[in-house]
Design a protein that fits this description.
The protein has about 240 residues and is mostly beta strands. Helix content is about 15%, strand content about 35%.
Length: about 240
């Protein structure tokens, strides 16, 4: 069938309009994810991303706490944007360092957490660190103790903040794991079960300290094991 000139013009206008409508939809498909992004692991376990970027293979990946999931292949969603769909799956887990590597899907694009210039070593006693999590937001506190690849600090944190980035002077230094009394707290360790988790930064200062793991140690471990996340390069 031949198309008349008018029909061709009408068809071209319809196609152009369809293309114009398709562009915004494609642009919205990839959600930005990075340190501090709130997620749902398995659709129900609320946690927070530590950082996002690419591994040595060029694959987009992100990190969070291992205790947020139990099985490899568990799907990960954005807590604040369920319409984004599955943004990744759990690719590896290390319960000793409490980290998981998430292999991101095309529904997510890695971005760097604002204000973070790179990674850094575990902070010393007295250093003020800050953490970001979807439950208690951005909070800061003093570092009480460091022991190898882990350290304890008093930045307010609660359930759902797990996996959140811990920073010191603009550098990512740790992955937030949970509430725990420092081992060298002596007799004070016996009051650990009596101290509540911090659920709001304005509450009493007497709350359970948080334990975090060195992010440099975590990425080095993934590299040594040749796991997804090896040779991690932050967005």
């Amino acid at each position: 069938m031949r198309w008349t000139g008018l029909a061709r013009m009408a068809a071209a206008a319809v196609l152009a309009g369809s293309a114009a409508l398709a562009v915004p939809a494609a642009a919205q498909a990839a959600a930005p994810v990075g340190g501090g992004t709130p997620i749902l692991v398995g659709g129900n376990a609320g946690c927070t991303l530590t950082a996002a970027g690419w591994d040595a293979s060029g694959a987009p990946v992100a990190f969070t706490a291992a205790h947020c999931s139990e099985d490899l292949g568990t799907q990960v969603f954005l807590r604040d944007d369920p319409r984004a769909g599955v943004i990744g799956t759990i690719a590896t887990r290390n319960e000793v360092l409490d980290y998981s590597v998430i292999r991101l899907t095309p529904a997510a694009t890695p971005v760097r957490q604002p204000g973070v210039t790179g990674t850094g070593p575990v902070p010393d006693f007295g250093a003020v660190v800050c953490k970001d999590g979807f439950t208690t937001g951005h909070t800061c506190g003093v570092t009480w103790q460091r022991e190898g690849h882990k350290f304890w600090h008093h930045a307010c944190a609660g359930y759902g903040d797990s996996g959140g980035p811990v920073t010191h002077e603009g550098r990512l230094v740790g992955l937030l794991s949970g509430g725990h009394m420092p081992p060298n707290s002596g007799p004070a360790g016996s009051v650990g079960p009596l101290l509540p988790s911090c659920v709001h930064p304005a509450q009493t200062p007497f709350f359970l300290p948080a334990i975090s793991y060195s992010f440099d140690t975590i990425t080095a471990d993934a590299t040594e094991r040749n796991w997804p996340g090896r040779g991690f390069r932050m967005a």
